[in-house]
Structures are given as C-alpha cells and as structure tokens.
Hints:
This protein has helices at residues 6-34, 40-58, 65-90, 97-104, 110-129, 131-136, 145-173, 193-210, 214-220, 222-232, 237-244, 250-256, 265-275. It is mostly helical and 279 residues long. The protein has one domain. Helix 2 packs antiparallel against helix 3, helix 2 (40-58) packs across helix 5 and helix 8 packs antiparallel against helix 10. The chain is globular. It starts with 5 loop residues before the first helix and ends with a helix. The mean pLDDT is 92.
Amino acid sequence: MTGFAWGAFGWNLAAVAGAALAVMLGTFALALRRGLHRIVDVAWGLGFTAVALTTYGLSAGVGDGGRRLLVTVLTAVWGLRLAFHIARRGRGHGEDPRYERLLAKAPGSRTAYALRTVYLLQAGLVWCVSLPVQAAQYAPGPLGPLAAAGAAVWLLGLAFEAIGDAQLYRFKADPANRGKIMDRGLWSWTRHPNYFGDFCIWWGLFLIACDASVAAAGVAVAGPLVISYLLTRGSGKALLERHLADRPGYAEYRARTSGFVPLPPALSRRLRRTVLPRS
C-alpha cells in the first residue's frame, strides 16, 4: 500500500472546481434565457455527477480501481436520480418562491446578485461537499469493511430519499390533498425523510473514503459536516419548517413526528411525553 497521492489530489481539487463552476455557469446562462432560477436545483445533482466523473478520469492509475468505480457509480446514481426528480417536480411551475424572496433583496443588479448568491455559492458547496467522492478515489489499497459499511449507509439514504420523494410527489398530485400536511408512509416516521436520506448518502460516502486512508478521511470529513449543517440548520430542515409553521395542522404533525432521525410514531410520541411532559 502506498501513501495518499497529495500532488495528484491537489490538481484534482482545481479541476473539480472548474467542473462544478462550468455546470453552474451553464445553468446560470440557461436560467437567464428562460427567466427561471429554480432550474439551479436540478443542476445540484448534476454538479456532483460531473465531479465524480472528472475525478474518476483524473485518478486513473493512482487510487484503487474498485473504490474509484464504487464512489463514482454511487454518486452518479444519487445525483441523476435527484436531478430527474426535481426536474419532474418543477415541470410546468413558475419561479420558486425562495428565489423570488432572495432576489427581491438584491441591493443592485438582480442578475449579478443571483450569480453571486446562488450559482457561485452552489458551485463552491458542490466542491466542498464532494470532498469524500474526490478523496476516496485517491485512497490506496483495496476495498475493506468500512467501504461495505459505507455502501450500506448510502443505500439506506437512497431508499429514504427516493421513497420519501415518491410518496410526497404522489400525495401532492392528488387534488384531494391540496392544503393538507403529508403525514403518511416515511413521513409519519420523520418530518424530513429526504433530508435524512441525503445525510446518510454523504456519511456513507465518507466511510468509503475512510476505508483505506487516514489522510483521505481527514480531507473528506468537511463534506459531510457541511451538508449536515445545511440539512439541519441551514437551507434544509430549518428553512422549510419556518415556511410551513403557519400551515393548518403542521403544529400537530410536528408534535407527533420525529424532526429528523426516523422513529416509529408510537415511540416518537412516547419520547416526547417523557422529555417534554405535559404541564
């Protein structure tokens, strides 16, 4: 087993930054043409796919072939599924209210403000969050037990994300559910099955990066830490719950359903009564 290829990895970091930037700038140009910034959400998954493929090409002959192929396939499957789901969900809709509110605060040119605060920021996040994908492909040595554990965590995450998204899509497609809170299926176990799934995806990829290299683990850990913060405290769970807070029935749903980690509804209610007893 040889050491971590720091020199080659450094060049990869620069190339991946270029790939992420190219995806987001191309999306920015398309968004201006269509007058619709919500398409940047589709580019999020595509950006990670581009990163994985770029790293796979550059790491040939450096990292372990099995690990390189594994993380590339897992990342591409996740990214392409997410991009397809978001594109289908947004088809026929106008601008996302999030971007309308954001651009309404632009101090000057809305175009320049959108480029800075949406597209360039997301390119930077793709570069950072994808560190496990990049580092894993430069890690030496064959696949081991941690890689198997990481793949299992990734699979759990993909299941929660894909099933949760599909359940919510079907729920919203039924006119009878208009204005109602989705509280069925996985959504009865956690208020955010898709965000929990995303959380597992990136910690699973991190475990694969840890499999054969302490150096790779040290580099990669920033990725899952950043996405975990975004999912729980940043633009994910926290932002969505503020948006839903005044919707009829949401307070009751929040009171009986786990906020992030999936729990059976009965156990969630029991824990809530124990930790927050009625006055």
